[in-house]
């Protein structure tokens, strides 16, 4: 897969790709991955949800390296998880990129459009 040029500099030549939420893949620059890794390591092992999320997140993680044309190889397990086939959508979200199947992305947007105002209203408590 070709990573769009506008995201390559932020990711660096090597970055971590893992299972994301909502059936997409998350791509993190190595420095951001280290921050997330430290936070997840600090979660209590006694909490079932913490163990489950940490397993889910780390077990899919792979280090990717961009070739000279900005391409990466994505393992089959991640392709299957995100239903990535022919048409893909790449979006930038703060400190990461997200790789989506075009169909899954379009369905996600369609499902969220109706509730966007409600979501925005709920974000008020986060001082945004």
TrEMBL record:
Compartments, record wording: Cytoplasm, Nucleoid
Keywords: Cell cycle, Cell division, Cytoplasm, DNA-binding, Repeat, Transcription, Transcription regulation
Gene3D superfamilies assigned: Transcriptional regulator MraZ domain
GO biological process: one example: cell division
Signal peptide boundaries: none
GO cellular component: cytoplasm; nucleoid
Domain SpoVT-AbrB: 1-32, 61-104
Top-level taxonomic group: Bacteria
Transmembrane regions listed in the UniProt entry: none
Name recorded for this polypeptide: Transcriptional regulator MraZ
Organism: Bacillus gobiensis
């Amino acid at each position: 897969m070709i990573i769009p040029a506008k995201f390559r500099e932020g990711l660096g030549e090597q970055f971590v790709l893992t299972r994301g939420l909502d059936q997409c893949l998350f791509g993190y620059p190595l420095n951001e991955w280290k921050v997330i890794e430290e936070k997840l390591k600090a979660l209590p092992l006694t909490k079932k949800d913490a163990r489950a999320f940490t397993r889910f997140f780390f077990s899919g993680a792979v280090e990717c390296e961009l070739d000279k044309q900005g391409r990466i190889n994505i393992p089959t397990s991640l392709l299957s998880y995100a239903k990535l086939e022919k048409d893909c959508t790449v979006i930038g979200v703060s400190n990461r990129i997200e790789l989506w199947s075009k169909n899954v992305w379009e369905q996600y947007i369609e499902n969220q459009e109706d509730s966007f105002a409600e979501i925005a209203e709920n974000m008020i408590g986060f001082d945004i």
